[in-house]
Specification:
Layout lengths: L1 H49 L11 H56 L7
Length: 124
């Protein structure tokens, strides 16, 4: 059955796509982590130069405020990416289950086809 073979290929494609998506999300989370660490270091350096660490102080460095805001935004985006990754992992598990079912149907159909084409003794 050609349709079963197509179904297996489709399910395999979906599994591979989810794995690629998860890898991409992992890379983005790691990149955001690196960028946030750089911003933290920049804020610390700026605070060290001015000697002012109180964000509410009138002379708190503008660059440090902006870097801290970018840092917070990155952390928020990172948390959202982690949620997307968890969702993608759930979808991957579901796709893998569907793939196994499709492969089982395909192997069953192949076994049936091979039995149908095997030579049979004619009784007559």
């Amino acid at each position: 059955m050609k349709s079963r073979e197509n179904l297996v290929r489709l399910k395999q494609f979906q599994v591979n796509e989810k794995r690629r998506q998860i890898a991409q999300l992992d890379g983005m989370v790691a990149e955001f982590e690196r960028m946030a660490a750089e911003l933290e270091a920049q804020v610390a350096a700026e605070e060290g130069k001015t000697g002012i660490t109180d964000q509410n102080h009138f002379a708190y460095p503008t660059f440090a405020k902006a870097a801290r805001l970018r840092h917070d935004n990155l952390r928020t985006s990172q948390a959202e990416l982690i949620q997307q990754k968890e969702q993608a992992l759930a979808e991957l598990n579901e796709a893998e289950v569907e793939l196994k079912k499709a492969e089982a149907l395909e192997s069953r159909d192949a076994r049936i086809r091979s039995e149908d084409t095997s030579p049979r003794a004619m009784i007559g």
